[in-house]
Specification:
single chain, alpha+beta, YefM-like fold, 3-stranded mixed β-sheet, 4 helices, elongated
């Protein structure tokens, strides 16, 4: 379980915060009770950023969505026929 630290306590006991993070438990730093930062080991950070780089992240996922230009690659997704209608204002 992550430990929550008030920012002043985290400053005063920074070595303890880092040591606990190195043992594999991320540490949450709060300001006025609101989480504002997380301290985690460099190994954990590296794993998180490596995964994002290898799978392309959310942006790559969105860019891989079928469009009219690549409908043949849509994997059998059928599009409904939409008709525009007149709207009066």
């Amino acid at each position: 379980m992550m430990t929550r630290w008030a920012i002043q306590d985290a400053k005063n006991q920074f070595s303890k915060v880092v040591d606990t993070a190195l043992r594999g438990t991320p540490q949450v730093v709060t300001r006025r009770g609101v989480p504002v930062a997380v301290v985690l080991s460099a190994d954990q950070y590296s794993l998180l950023t490596k995964k994002e780089k290898t799978d392309g992240g959310f942006a790559r996922f969105l860019l891989s969505m079928p469009t009219e230009a690549n409908d043949s690659d849509a994997g059998g997704v059928e599009h409904s026929a939409l008709e525009l209608r007149e709207v009066e204002f």
